[in-house]
Design brief:
This protein is an alpha+beta fold and about 110 residues long. Helices cover about 50% and strands about 20% of the residues. A four-stranded mixed beta sheet has the order 1-2-4-3. Helix 2 packs antiparallel against helix 3.
Amino acid sequence: MTGGRVVVLGPTGRNFAAGMSGGIAYVLDETGVFAGQHCNRELVDLEDLIDHRESTEVLDLIRRHHALTGSPVAKRVADTWIMCRPKFVKVMPRDFKRALARLEREEAETMIE
């Protein structure tokens, strides 16, 4: 993945995030094994989903997925969001995170001028 956002509600393979240079993935880790057994952590950091705005965006994507596909998993996750939210892992490429931070700094400097 080189850009965008993806929400993963099912199991992942062993080498998730290998070559991930941009974008953000939100993985529902209901079994607690994603970080240790399924994610290639060479280029990415794993974070909790704690930001309210970001959490709302993820829930909106899940609800949209359910509306478009009728996914029973998406419905269950949306209906039990309070319990499911802490089980999400944010997968963020380090280079992408640095680039976003640089853009934020540049925008802030532009607004000051």
